[in-house]
Amino acid sequence: MDSATSRPAIVIDNGTGYTKMGFAGNVEPCFTLPTVVAINESFVNQPRSSGKGSNWLAQHSAGVMADLDFYIGDEALSRSRSNNTYTLTNPIRNGQVDNWDAMERFWQQCIFNYLRCDPEDHYFLLTESPLTPPESREYTGEIMFETFNVPGLYIAVQPVLALAAGYTTSKCEMTGVVVDVGDGATHVVPVADGYVIGSSIKSIPIAGKDVTLFIQQLMRERGEHVPPEDSFEVARKVKETYCYTSSDIVKEFNKYDREPAKYIKQYKGIKPRTGAPYSCDIGYERFLGPEVFFSPEIYSSDFSTPLPAVIDKCIQSAPIDTRRALYKNVVLSGGSTMFKDFHRRLQRDLKKIVDARVLASDARLGGEIKAQPVEVNVVSHPIQRYAVWFGGSVLASTSEFFSACHTKAEYEEYGASICRTNPVFKGMY
């Protein structure tokens, strides 16, 4: 039998909204599916019979069935829509695993139903959000080594992979700020020479799901006729299809009011239960959705710092000798940075903040010393949506990858604690 190191590793990037999975060396994931599990409730609530030995077999087989009767991804969504016995569970909330049972089931189907491979034959690269507690890594290691019996496992930090995604170009720049806007969490993570500057990580409670909720709210308040059980899905589709980032809200409002026919779109859907068609208008939410990152106060009163200001704060709290390099390489990652012109708006707003600071310091010094202008550059690339997965694919296809993994033998000798630390956070734990 040839060893697992001669086969491509499996890369699974579990996100709050979508999970991307595939084999190392590929340019894009084989599957991208919503991170949801539909579990059959009828087995869970089975009455336990009191009679000794009575239908022990029935109970046992019900238990086995309950372990097998579940769906993930789009299948889960359609099952729960058409059938009342299935309940939907989101295993990951705000970037952290919330429900380990569901997560284990999710991985089970990823490996056996989608990737269709034997986990004992492949090394695995899984990803995690930057502020994950070490215990969570231990659980992940335990499930991977005990349940799936994998030969080796590496748990990578998402933003570092997003930077590594730029490896394919001639200049491999491992210093930069990764702005990772996913569905459930937004992190601004400064990385210097491949090491995360842990103390400067900033996290924002506004992410892709909030854009969806905001669009849902705008459409509801305007009285669009969307069936309530479908309204979240409709808002998500509207977000993914029609939203864009505007440079000036007031101008956009005027544009829409001047020629509504040009800007207002129609959404057509079918009611899930009755099959009746319906349609609704999509107006201002096209640009108001993504605006929550730049003017969060329109969405929630709890958090009001715009994303560019958070990025600036993050860089200002990093060591002074890394700051210029960080401003020069702001890398976007995650599906919610895919809005049209998102990077332009971010770069413009960030540059404004930086220029204002340079001017203020010049004024303070009375023009005796001229500060060098700071170069601000927000990097946008076509694979932003899969940047983390692609970075994982690049990393796992290098020869060093296998030596960096935790192996089954190490796990058996030392236990799950080997997964606690991650070398990219040098000295954090």
From TrEMBL:
The keyword Protein biosynthesis does not apply. Transmembrane segments: none annotated. Its main location: cytoplasm. Keywords: Actin-binding, ATP-binding, Cytoplasm, Cytoskeleton, Nucleotide-binding. SMART domains: ACTIN (SM00268). Belongs to the actin family. ARP3 subfamily. GO terms for molecular function: actin binding; ATP binding. GO terms for biological process: actin cortical patch organization; Arp2/3 complex-mediated actin nucleation. InterPro entries: Actin (IPR004000), ATPase_NBD (IPR043129). This is Actin-related protein 3. It is found in: Cytoplasm, Cytoskeleton. CDD domains: ASKHA_NBD_Arp3-like (cd10221). One of its GO terms (cellular component) is cytoskeleton. It comes from Camellia sinensis var. sinensis. The keyword Cytoplasm applies.
